[in-house]
Design a protein that fits this description.
Layout: E1 12-20, H1 27-35, E2 43-48, H2 55-60, E3 67-71, H3 78-88, E4 91-97, E5 102-103, H4 107-114, E6 120-127, H5 147-156, E7 166-169, H6 173-176, H7 187-197, E8 201-211, H8 226-249
Parallel strand pairs: 1-2, 1-4, 2-3, 6-8
Antiparallel strand pairs: 4-7, 5-8, 6-7
Helix pairs in contact: 5-7, 5-8, 7-8
Length: 258
């Protein structure tokens, strides 16, 4: 295992990018499900966000050479951790992964096939151990090319884009990163906005992960106050404008937003 933050040109097939924080209870099981899906030359990039528990040590003890562990000296939040993981990843295809889910066998090949003609792919999930899903309807492949409708659905909170079920081709990294500085959550919606603005996103009808819901999930849950709802919608509008700018200008010229 490489316990470092090196960089390099894309030279491997799949990079899985994971942000960890206080995930010691579940991250080992998740990593096992991911490694079972990867080839010998793929990589799992784990950026630990200064966890106060032994999360990073749990990752380190796996001892697989495909794992690249980066220990952040300070806590920056999961959005910046994902951004760092993507930045240092080297694969031609980038998969996002939470620390506490379980990958369904066949996930990688199914999503790679979808990216043969799309920059971004978004899949569905089932609940680990059964149980009800969030109320937002499942993604449908029939909606893949309905980009304007997808953007509107993102704005009103009606599209089930979850980062744990998403991946993108290396060519889309210049749209996705750098993530605008005002984004503190919803990096997955930012990626979905980029894919839809670029006119190149595929929805999978299938589920590719089992999602675990527990008390310490980093993704916000439950109903929010009206000011937070309004603030989130303003942020999404700003992101749509920024994604329009980046996708029209070209990925190689994307710049940070301040």
């Amino acid at each position: 295992m490489n316990d470092e933050s090196g960089t390099g040109e894309p030279k491997i097939r799949v990079s899985v990018c994971m942000a960890t924080y206080k995930g010691a209870d579940f991250v080992g099981e998740q990593i096992a499900s991911i490694l079972a899906e990867l080839g010998p030359d793929d990589e799992l990039v784990v950026v630990d966000d200064a966890s106060p528990d032994d999360t990073a040590d749990v990752v380190g003890r796996v001892g697989d050479p495909r794992i690249r562990l980066v220990r952040s000296p300070v806590n920056r939040g999961y959005v910046r951790s994902f951004e760092e993981a993507v930045r240092i990843s080297r694969g031609a295809y980038v998969f996002l992964s939470d620390q506490d889910d379980i990958w369904i066998p066949g996930r990688v090949e199914l999503m790679l096939a979808a990216m043969s003609d799309s920059l971004v792919v978004a899949s569905n999930f089932d609940m680990l151990g059964g149980g009800s899903r969030p109320w937002i309807p499942r993604l449908k492949s029939a909606d893949s090319r309905r980009h304007a409708a997808n953007l509107f659905a993102i704005l009103i909170g009606y599209r089930a884009y979850y980062g744990c079920g998403m991946a993108f081709r290396r060519e889309a990294a210049g749209y996705f990163t750098p993530i605008p500085a005002y984004v503190r959550e919803s990096h997955d919606l930012w990626l979905a906005i980029c894919g839809n603005e670029a006119g190149s996103i595929a929805h999978l009808d299938e589920s590719t992960i089992y999602r675990r819901i527990h008390e310490t999930n980093q993704t916000p849950a439950g109903w929010r106050s009206l000011p937070k709802i309004v603030g989130a919608r303003v942020m999404l509008v700003r992101l749509m404008v920024e994604a329009f700018r980046r996708t029209r200008r070209g990925s190689g010229q994307a710049t940070a937003v301040r």
